[in-house]
Write a structure and sequence with these properties.
The protein has 128 residues and is an alpha+beta fold. Strands 2-1-5 form a 3-stranded antiparallel beta sheet. A two-stranded antiparallel sheet has the order 3-4. It is elongated.
Length: 128
């Protein structure tokens, strides 16, 4: 899908890593993913947009290590992964399709006793 940011706040400080979205989500789900393939850049930042790298002393104080891969794995698993707008939109469309399919299979029009059409359900969702 592309690159995005994963971030976490620890001990009052912000830490960020640049990650591949699909790999990061797979790692978070518990799939066997190599953290080196998840990271876009092997660096921990306090603000990646400004290029501010995290100090080793802060990393050790917050995470107990200065190893980029150990810390990045903790950030991806326990932090917040910033989802791009197009990813969120695709997820919403997929969820709406699942709902429409479920209702089209299981809901009946009480007047005609026939199933509602997917178009009618989509229209009702749009009006709501």
């Amino acid at each position: 899908m592309g690159n995005t940011t994963a971030r976490i706040k620890a001990h009052g400080k912000d830490f960020e890593v640049l990650v591949d979205l699909d790999s990061a989500l797979n790692l978070r789900k518990g799939l066997n993913v190599n953290i080196q393939n998840v990271l876009g850049i092997d660096q921990i930042f306090t603000d990646h947009k400004k290029g501010l790298k995290a100090a080793d002393k802060d990393l050790i104080a917050c995470f107990g290590s200065s190893d980029v891969y150990i810390i990045a794995a903790k950030i991806v698993k326990n932090g917040e992964i910033m989802l791009p707008l197009e990813y969120k939109k695709a997820q919403m469309e997929n969820k709406e399709k699942q709902i429409v399919d479920f209702l089209a299979r299981n809901a009946l029009d009480p007047i005609t006793n026939r199933p509602h059409t997917p178009e009618r359900i989509r229209s009702a969702i749009g009006q709501a």
